[in-house]
Amino acid sequence: METNHNDYFIVKAMDNGVQVIGLTRGQDTRFHHTEKLDKGEVMIAQFTDHTSAVKIRGKAKIMTKYGVIDTEE
């Protein structure tokens, strides 16, 4: 099965210290990458063969083709 890598998502930090954590694909889900964003910083990312999920910690705005989500703290 081929994974669609065309969809991007954007994370905009609304406060200092927002963490963007990539989780692996496969039988065991594990953390494999972490980025720390400060207020106003933006990260543009996409899912890959290795990354199946992303966890966001902190106050951020997540923008996808499905809409915008604001985290709550």
UniProtKB/TrEMBL annotation:
Q: Which GO terms describe its molecular function?
A: RNA binding
The answer to keyword RNA-binding applying to this record is: yes
Name the keywords, alphabetized.
RNA-binding, Transcription, Transcription regulation
SUPFAM superfamilies in UniProt:
TRAP-like
GO biological process entries? DNA-templated transcription termination; regulation of DNA-templated transcription
Q: Which family does it belong to?
A: Belongs to the MtrB family.
Note the subunit structure: Oligomer of 11 identical subunits arranged in doughnut-like structure.
This chain belongs to the protein called Transcription attenuation protein MtrB
Q: Which organism is it from?
A: Paenibacillus naphthalenovorans
